[in-house]
Design a protein that fits this description.
InterPro entries: DUF4110, Kelch-typ_b-propeller, Kelch_domain_protein. The protein is built from twelve helices and 36 strands.
Length: 713
């Protein structure tokens, strides 16, 4: 008994010593936080205009546009803009953004260019670039295919006590890296951030966003069109009776051949709830109060744009109409905010997002996602996209395909022989001999061939030296996140950065990945860096310290109660930044519902396969094979379409007709991509590696016996 008491006494002493050590560490951390705030603080009444003017003066010291190779990727940032260069298929563009370390916010205005073929980052400096910002939007031009247009954004004091919103409008030439500020006469869009932009022909389309004021956040639902030919903004006011999207930010806005499409978004709406206080009799006091309630929008709108007649005045606005669509079928579940999309071949490629679930008044638990979806715009349906291992070349499950493999090998050998013969004929011409004569000096021809091969080997050696490093490839998607930046270049999806939260800490992810949307054969890691410079606030430290003291007391008093506390489900609270924003928006307390259900929507569109009469790709069929099989049909479809438009097909060259027909077949191939991928997965699971029609098999000279044997297997 005495031994037990002695053991408990020693255990208490050890716990007290450990507690004292923790308190000393907390005191050191608090001192660090205070010094960081003193050093970096401009006080909350900082003059942002003066700060931005100083930025401008520093920028003007650059005499010309310069582009320098940097050793490391860009600094970690959130709320930046990321785009595939419209003028160079080997480049990606990144501009602006902000980084928050728990105490101070830093804003950027550097233009970073990633050279895909070299795995190289370059930083562009310019005397005339937009000032530092985040939450801005940009888009490529429609008819102005060489331009990138940027509008708005926000800037704040380091401690985010004061916000500034931009209403400036810029054009970037991606080829020369030149920025030009566009000054327009007449009415222009007001300042904002969190908005979205897209393009249609000669128009730049801008919608939504929000404005931060000292007391609240105001969400916007105004629509603006900029005419890139007449250099004027048009403010579009729909008729009062016309359905239009509610005010929102962080939505998807994608181009369409007749205008644009809008999906989803986030906002906070006013709601009246019963007061939480109760009287002595246990009933409610009958009072109510107003709160700001989060809303994740799931509605979808089509923006139809009709250009003015050709004989109308230059500044005539187009005819614009919002048309509400049905709720997309197979939407990701649960609903999520911060899921971003990139446009690709008539689809929106969506990644990530966060779903907040209210646990109690003290905090909420958040679920983060790293799933990939394709939203087919025309069908208004979501399709999940998953990674799968690449199929071994020449491997065909199901049997009966050995002849096909041998045939392909034979074609490659013949092509190589033809190339050798062509090189020999060119060498003979250089030697001055006739192609069909015997006067050629064989030794001289061999010398020329040897020289050509040597030059080719040198070129190959140079190319191999320039070859980029091998990047790790994983069969898992990147870490879950929200507000990731996406761009698609040459059918490859690039995922840059994003935000993740755990407890009171906010992680700005510092990484970049690439996924081939055609093959879906893995996720390539371009770079990934770990950051650990988060500075905890004094409130967070106090909360942690109080929790530890309570836990220590419970352990000392009753070990069983302590075990129960440890077994309780951990509660996640919003990041300190979320708390500040909720307070700034006027929320008197945590809203009763973290994820507000959207207004009653139409029932999801049922999946009905409609036969459009067009050739359909087969499982395991590449774009090239699909076109070779259906080339005649696509050319006939193209010529019919041309005649409908009053264009005679005879006026086009055969090569041009084939090129346009291939574009039509490629569009169909991508349109069916997710359905075909699902069929391929099912057939591979069943041991089928290729589907060949009997007609094609007979045409290739195959017997019926081989096909029957294949079916029996």
């Amino acid at each position: 008994m005495a031994k037990d008491k002695k053991g408990k006494s020693e255990s208490k002493k050890a716990k007290l010593a450990e507690k004292k050590q923790k308190q000393e560490k907390k005191a050191e951390k608090k001192a660090k936080v205070k010094s960081a705030k003193i050093e970096g603080s401009d006080a909350e009444d900082v003059d942002l205009d003066a700060v931005l003017e100083e930025y401008k003066k520093q920028q003007e010291q650059f005499l010309k546009v310069t582009e320098n190779v940097v050793e490391d990727p860009p600094r970690a940032r959130a709320a930046s803009t990321f785009m595939a260069s419209p003028t160079n298929s080997n480049q990606l563009l990144l501009f602006g953004g902000e980084y928050f370390n728990g105490a101070l916010a830093t804003f950027f205005n550097d233009l970073m260019v990633y050279y895909i073929d070299r795995d190289e980052w370059r930083c562009v400096t310019s005397p005339n670039a937009p000032l530092p910002r985040s939450g801005h939007a940009w888009t490529r031009g429609g008819n102005d295919s060489t331009g990138v247009y940027l509008f708005g954004g926000e800037f704040s004091s380091p401690k985010q006590g004061t916000f500034y919103h931009y209403n400036d409008f810029w054009r970037l030439d991606p080829a020369t890296r030149e920025w030009a500020r566009i000054e327009c006469k007449g009415k222009t869009p007001p300042a904002r951030s969190g908005h979205r932009m897209t393009y249609y022909k000669n128009y730049i389309i801008l919608f939504g966003g929000f404005q931060d004021t000292a007391n609240q956040t105001k969400y916007l639902q105004d629509l603006w069109l900029y005419d890139t030919q007449n250099f004027v903004w048009h403010s579009i006011t729909p008729p009062p009776a016309q359905l239009k999207p509610d005010a929102r930010s962080s939505f998807t806005f994608l181009p369409h051949d007749q205008g644009a499409v809008l999906y989803g978004g986030y906002s906070r709406v006013k709601a009246t709830v019963a007061a939480g206080k109760q009287n002595k009799q246990g009933g409610g006091n009958g009072g109510s109060k107003n709160i700001l309630k989060p809303m994740i929008h799931q509605d979808c709108f089509f923006l139809r744009i009709t250009q003015p007649p050709a004989d109308s005045a230059p500044n005539t606005a187009p005819t614009v109409r919002w048309e509400k669509r049905k709720k997309p079928a197979n939407t990701p579940n649960p609903t999520r905010a911060g899921a971003t999309m990139a446009y690709h071949k008539g689809r929106g490629i969506m990644f990530g997002g966060v779903h907040d679930v209210e646990e109690s008044e003290e905090g909420m638990e958040s679920e983060f996602f790293n799933q990939l979806f394709a939203w087919n715009i025309e069908r208004n349906r979501f399709f999940p996209m998953g990674l799968k291992k690449a199929r071994a070349p020449g491997k065909k499950a199901g049997g009966g395909n050995g002849g096909d493999v041998r045939e392909r090998v034979g074609r490659r050998d013949r092509a190589k022989q033809n190339e050798e013969e062509l090189l020999r004929q060119l060498a003979a011409l250089q030697a001055g001999a006739k192609l069909d004569g015997d006067d050629a000096d064989e030794a001289e021809i061999e010398a020329i061939l040897k020289k050509q091969r040597g030059e080719e080997e040198e070129e190959e050696e140079k190319d191999s030296k320039k070859k980029v490093r091998d990047m790790p490839v994983s069969m898992e998607m990147p870490h879950p996140r929200f507000n990731a930046q996406l761009a698609v270049q040459d059918d490859v999806l690039y995922i840059y950065g994003g935000t993740f939260e755990k407890g009171d800490r906010e992680f700005t992810l510092d990484d970049m990945y690439a996924i081939d949307l055609g093959k879906m054969d893995g996720c390539k890691e371009i770079f990934k860096r770990e950051g650990d410079d988060w500075i905890e606030s004094e409130d967070e430290d106090d909360d942690e310290e109080d929790d530890e003291e309570e836990d220590s007391e419970e352990e000392a008093d009753d070990e069983e109660d302590a075990m129960e506390v440890e077994d309780k489900k951990a509660k996640f609270t919003p990041s300190d930044r979320k708390k500040k924003k909720a307070a700034k928006e006027g929320a008197e307390e945590t809203p009763a519902v973290a994820e507000a259900a959207a207004p009653a929507e139409e029932e999801e569109e049922t999946e009905e396969r409609v036969d459009d009469g067009l050739p359909h790709p087969r499982p395991f069929e590449s774009r090239r094979d699909f076109f070779q099989r259906t080339s005649a049909e696509w050319q006939e479809i193209l010529m019919t379409n041309l005649r409908w438009k009053g264009i005679q097909p005879e006026s086009l060259a055969v090569k041009e007709i084939k090129a346009k027909a291939f574009e039509l077949s490629e569009e169909k191939w991508w349109d069916c991509r997710e359905e075909i991928t699902a069929l391929e997965d099912e057939q591979e699971a069943a041991g089928i590696g290729e589907v060949v029609s009997l007609a094609d098999k007979a045409g290739a000279g195959g017997g019926a016996g081989a096909g029957s044997a294949g079916r029996r297997r």
